[in-house]
Each structure stands twice: as structure tokens, then as C-alpha cells.
Write the C-alpha cells for this entry.
Amino acid sequence: MKFSPVLLLITMSIVSSAQNKPRARDLGVPFEGSPGPLNAIVDVPGVAVGHKTLISGDGKLQVGAGPVRTGVTAVWPRGKQSSDPVFGGFFSQNGNGDMTGTHWIEESGFLDGPVLITNTHSVGVVRDAYLAWLVKNKRQPGTNVFDGGFYTYPIVAETYDGFLNDINGFHVKPDDVAAALESASTGRVPEGNVGGGTGMVCYGFKGGIGTSSRKLAGGYTVGVLVQCNCGSRRQLRIGGLPVGQEIADNMPVASVQHSFRDDTGSIIIVVATDAPLLPHQTKRLARRATMGLARTGSTSGNGSGDIFIAFSTANPNAAAAKAPVNVSMLPNDAINGVFEAAVQATEEAIVNAMVGAETMTGIDGHKVSALPHDRLREVLRKYGRLLP
């Protein structure tokens, strides 16, 4: 595949800005809990994240030609070299969205492979592309393998980016999925207008990918990654304050033909931990993402697909066992800290998605403004909540 100089410059710009962008804590936003070293989902040992960002064209929408503002994000529970499934569970807070493969997670208790996130109309190609990637690389999943072959159910989730992106142009291709899978690393996670979050809108500001983590007293870590595309401006709360009401201007600008609707968003939340949890406990953990989402003001409107998945990287090789195997679990009476960490990290990941995003113009001149850092600090200062 050949890369144009323009595309190369865009890619280099994204990487450079990801390394230099302030995050919510840098702006003085108060959060509870102690984050891990990178304050990201990759603080959970083994977890790796990769993005493929697609940005091209501007002006009038020409279906199939652009403008393009989309991509793919991949979250590997044990890294891209591992085929060892993890205990997992999912929860649908409001089901106006899609996450494939969840029936088998519910049945088996295992999440087998990465969690992939993209736009609404690219779920099919991303699912098929992951299967093709397995075949091309002679990789097998960790379950449902038999002599001569295998079958598996990829986990692919989505949120709608059609306000900024030529969503009916189907610009996400198999090579883009492979790039997200193969670029996954355990280093700093780019946030905002990247990967599957490239064209997303969050509380009327530019949204996208955000992440955060919490270290627990017992040595365990909880990490969260979100693809944030939900909520209305009036709802937004940061640090417990009515930021959306205080910063009520700079609303998304739409053409007459395509008015902005704030209830057609969605949010995908991925919660990871190395605490030893059994499948039913990971489902309980996934539910707690709802409370972190609520802290930022969302009420999960009818048009929002709010779907969450959680997994535990403890108990390696449990899926491969051919005979009874001993597994460890955190007693229910000792799980409160994990729940609290998930709530705190979810809240911060959502705010990080908006803080990390930049103003974007897409199809037909539709424009979504970034959350203004200086005005956010003014609101925090006004209410006595700004941290040094």
C-alpha cells in the first residue's frame, strides 16, 4: 500500500499532537481516585490499544467520495500476540446500537479476541476483516477450534459518525482494520479525533476516544476506554458542575438539509482489570460504567446506544483447560473498590475524550467545536473546583 505525502503528514501530526495534548487533569479538573502511570486502559498489564484514523476531503458530501472522518480502534485484552481468552461480560444500558458477538460472551463467559470499535455502518466489514486477518496470519482464536478449522464471533461495537463523516460511503476497509489490530501497543493511548472516535460528537462538543485508569490499594488496576458520541450540551457536567449550561454557545453547525440531533449518539465503554473476576462479576463491573457515564450528565436517551463490556485478565489459560481447573476470584465482599474504580475511570475517560478532541469540519461544512480548555478552567474556578 502506498501512502501519499499528505496522508503521511496527517498521520505524523496526529501522533505528535497526541504526545503534546493536555488531558483533563492537566487543566485542573478534579477527579477522585489515583490513576495508573499512563492514566489509561493500558495500565492493566497486557492490554494494548491500536487506532486507524481516516481523514480526507472537505466540502459538499459526495457519497462514496467523502469527506471522510472515521476509523477503527482495537483493544486487545492480552496483547496482539495472545490467543488466550479472558473472562468477560457485557451490559446494554440502552440498546439503540450494536455490539456483535455478545451472545457467546453471555453463554460462555469468555471474551475471545479484541474489542473493535468503529462507525455504525462499518460493523460488518470490521467483523469480516478481523476473521480474514486471523486466516491470513494463520492465527486461531482461543475457543471453538477443531481439526481443520475454527469459528469465532468477533466483538465489534459502533457509534454513529454520520454528522461529520460520509458514513454511507463505507470508507473503512479491511486494510484499515488490520492496521488498527497490528498497530496496537501498550504505550500512551491517543485520544480525541482518532480511530473509531474520529467523527464523533459528545455533549455537543467534539468527542471521540478517551481513556483513564485507577490503581487499587490491593495492587490491582482498573482501566477504561470510551468511544464517546452521546449526550446533549445542557446535560454536560464536569467535576460535578453544569459546564454545558455555562458554555452554551459553539453548538454544532449543520446544513439545512441535515439538522443536528443530540439524541442520536451512543457510547461504547470498555472496562479492563487484572483483578480476578469470574464472568458474572465482569458483567456486574460492566454495569458500573453506567454510573460513571451518569456523572457526566447523560440520561441514555432513546436514540443512544450505550453498550458496555468488561473483562478480567486474571486466570490465564482457563479457556484452554481440558479438565477441571482451579481459578481465582475476588470475593463479592471485596469487590467494591473495583466497582468504584470503574465509575471514576469512566467519568474521567469521557472528559478526556472531549479535552483531547479538536474542532472538526466534515460533510457539507458541518462543524463541531472542541471543548474550550480556557473556558472550562473558568467554570471550575468560578465554582471553586479548579485544582492547581
